[in-house]
Amino acid sequence: MLRSRAVHRLRWLAAGSLLAVALVHCDDSDGSTPDYGPTGTPSVRVVYGFDKEGNPVSPPPDWCTVIGDSADDPRSRVPIALEVTEVTLRPPGLCGVQKQCGYAQLSVVCAPTPGEGGAGGESGAGGAGGEEGEQLPCPGVVNATSAAEVIEADFTKLADRYGPRTFRVDIIAESTGEVLLDKNGKKVSTPLFTLTTVADACPGQGGSGGSGS
User: How would you write the pLDDT of the chain (213 residues) with one tens digit per residue?
Assistant: First the structure.
């Protein structure tokens, strides 16, 4: 009786091993590893809100929010909504064989000064500058990561918590540990955007925060 059970268990283990080998070596006809998960053009954008038709709206240049006057104020962690397409968001180590899989990474990047990045003086320090979506050469300082379509900008990590800051969100591919690239070699990142933080009142908002006027 014990022998028959052992033989039965060994058969199941052998079958599982064969299945695992088959999955590992399940290649496309050209010998490459199949591209599991999303395969379309990946993208990410910041969603400030929605218009009357329900379409997502990008952040305005005068985006402002109140974070209070103490470092432990919960408003110092500002949630930023994202729209991510053709990417599976997962914590590190959980992507498996999916190629277009990873997590969102928020960075504080160098802000252009007037005349830099093609701004021609139209964008002051903290503005986006250059063409829409242009990425400045500054690598930036990582502020937060997220495996969801919401990421929190943590102003408690900044020495000076107030004023304009320029941010960028990148999708980090688990397979490489670098910014995910689409099939044309373009980084899957948001355009630069600016968020201004104040202690008690944004211009024209009477202390309620939100977008400035």
Answer: 545 554 455 454 444 444 444 444 444 455 555 667 888 999 999 999 999 999 999 999 999 999 998 888 999 999 999 999 999 999 999 999 999 999 999 999 975 544 444 333 333 333 333 344 444 446 689 999 999 999 999 999 988 899 999 999 999 999 999 999 999 999 999 999 999 999 999 987 654 444 333
Q: Which amino acid is at 183?
A: K
CB 57 within 8 A of CB 49: yes
Burial class (CB in 10 A: 0-12, 13-18, 19+), 147: middle
Q: Which contacts (CB < 8 Å, 24+ apart) does range 120-124 have?
A: 123/61
pTM above 0.85? no
Q: Tokens 């190629």: give the residue.
A: 99
Helices (H), the chain: 2-24
Handedness of CA 85, 132, 129, 115 (dihedral sign): positive
Q: Report long-range pairs for 121-124 (Cβ below 8 Å, ≥24 apart).
A: 123/61
Q: Which residue has the tokens 């028959």?
A: 4
Distance CA 190, CA 38 (A): 19
Tally of CB atoms within 10 A around 60: 14
